[in-house]
Amino acid sequence: MAGGAKTNGSSCMEVYYHLIREKKIRVRPVFENGMNFTRASFHMYNNEEDVDKLLYEIKNINK
Predict the structure, then answer these.
(1) How far apart are CA 48 and CA 14, in angstroms?
(2) In sequence order, what DSSP letters do the residues of 3-56 get, joined into one string?
(3) d(CA 63, CA 40)
(4) Which of 19, 24, 26, 63 is least enclosed, having the fewest CB within 10 Å?
(5) Higher-confidence residue: 53 or 6?
(6) Beta strands 28-30 and 2-5, pairing class
(7) Which helix (H) or strand (E) holds 2?
């Protein structure tokens, strides 16, 4: 399962660097077709805590 997020006020690279470097959450910046968003993919080894952590960080990226 994969999902994408567009964060108001932040480029996908800012989100990427924040999540990967500071929070150790693996995501991918997406630029194809003029898009500017961050993609996260989940697999069977992820749990609800992983998803909650990602959502919390995305919600609070601009605070």
Answers:
(1) 25
(2) EEE--TT--HHHHHHIIIIIS----EEE-GGG--EEEEE--TT--HHHHHHHHH
(3) 21
(4) 63
(5) 53
(6) unpaired
(7) strand 2-5
Residue 57 three-state SS: helix
What is the band of 59 on the pLDDT scale with cuts at 50, 70, 90? confident
C-beta of residue 20 within 8 angstroms of C-beta of residue 26: yes
**Position of tokens 């964060």?**
7
Instruction: Give pLDDT, residue 7.
Output: 60
Q: In this predicted model, what pLDDT tens digit does every residue of 8-20 receive, in sequence order? A: 667 888 889 989 9
What pLDDT shows up at residue 6?
56
